[in-house]
Write a structure and sequence with these properties.
There is one protein chain. By secondary structure, the protein is α/β, with parallel strands linked by helices. 40% of the residues lie in helices and 31% in strands. It is built from 4 helices and 5 strands; from the N terminus they run ββαβαβαβα. A 5-stranded mixed beta sheet has the order 1-2-3-4-5. Helix 1 packs parallel to helix 2.
Length: 124
């Protein structure tokens, strides 16, 4: 991973993991995000919440990495939820229709609460 991006697992218990991303999510960093997220899924944390609050930039490579992670979570009978999504990324999710597959919440706490309720109610 380079200095402009970091993924920190804040919580990993049972089949749920919460990871915080920070920095730029782009062509050079997207492969590391994908690899680390797939590692979490491979270790049994098939439900992922990615907190994007500290992501300063996301290009199409980063967007594609999120879609690839979602697909892998689905294959493991899991889910991917996003928290604190920037306006630009939220708009891209909406335009592509992926906001129906990748629920976005205002905070990581809200995403975790929705997971524990067993649904996606309250997604924004």
């Amino acid at each position: 991973m380079n200095d402009t991006f970091r993924l920190t697992t804040r919580r990993a218990e049972g089949d749920l993991a919460l990871a915080a991303l920070a920095g730029d999510l782009d062509l050079t960093t997207a492969p590391a995000l994908r690899a680390e997220a797939l590692d979490l899924i491979g270790r049994g944390h098939r439900h992922l919440v990615l907190d994007l609050e500290a992501v300063s930039f996301c290009d199409s490579s980063g967007f594609n990495a999120l879609v690839a992670i979602w697909r892998c979570a689905q294959e493991a009978d899991g889910t991917l939820s996003l928290a604190a999504v920037s306006g630009r990324l939220a708009r891209l999710l909406n335009i592509t229709g992926l906001d129906t597959l990748l629920p976005a919440y205002p905070t990581a706490a809200a995403a975790l609460a929705a997971h524990h309720r067993g649904g996606e109610a309250g997604a924004t």
